[in-house]
Amino acid sequence: MTGWRFWAATLAAVLGIGATFALGMWQLGRAHQKEALADAVSTQKRLTPLSQAEFLSGERHSAVYRPVLLRGRWVAEHTVFLDNRQMGGKVGFYVVTPLKLSGSDAAVLVQRGWAPRNFVQREQLPVIETPAGEVEVTGRIAPPPAKLYEFGPAGAGPIRQNLDLTPFAAETRLKLLQDVSVQQTGPASQGLQRDWPEAGAGRGPETNYGYAFQWWALCGLIAILYVWFQFIQPRRQARQV
């Protein structure tokens, strides 16, 4: 029983049990992270809207997903159409425009909404309305727009796959806040839909709990098979002899 095969099987079992147990714990941690994120988002959404003064004072850093009320002027010439974005199961553009904040030289990138794409004339931009003059924008503080995989170099036209705020600020010569953006909320208007997905939307924590159970079940199976083939079965065979 103490030959090389026994020790090889023991090593394989230890590695298998350790790996599957660790993977189960990792999935459990992912589930807890998703639950914590959902709780944080829910808490922020229930708070009163952050004022523009509070937003500019730096409180925005700890207020992601909190409602905010801003006033300013659209810098329409720097509107960007982020490609391959989905809303309601359809693929189109996220339309983003810098908002020059009133009473300040700062600007913030506003994710104004989603617009459909013309897949026949792919360079044609959707028709959207961008009011002139001072506007009031109701939204929620959000991270900068998520990045998708890009096959080629970053574009520089109105249609882009991704938008990095640091070079975009240099390109536009705006004092653009680079740590956050704002997702405009409210009913559809100006040719834009605003049914934004919730933060962390997708597979919920239940999926990770299921994966954790599967890994731990495999962990237990490895342990049972090891004990059976290395201890129980050899003893039963020895008794029969």
TrEMBL record:
Keywords: Cell membrane, Membrane, Transmembrane, Transmembrane helix. It is a multi-pass membrane protein. The chain crosses the membrane at residues 213-232. One of its GO terms (cellular component) is plasma membrane. It is found in: Cell membrane; Membrane. It comes from the Bacteria. Belongs to the SURF1 family. This is SURF1-like protein. It comes from Ramlibacter henchirensis. The lineage of its organism: Bacteria, Pseudomonadati, Pseudomonadota, Betaproteobacteria, Burkholderiales.
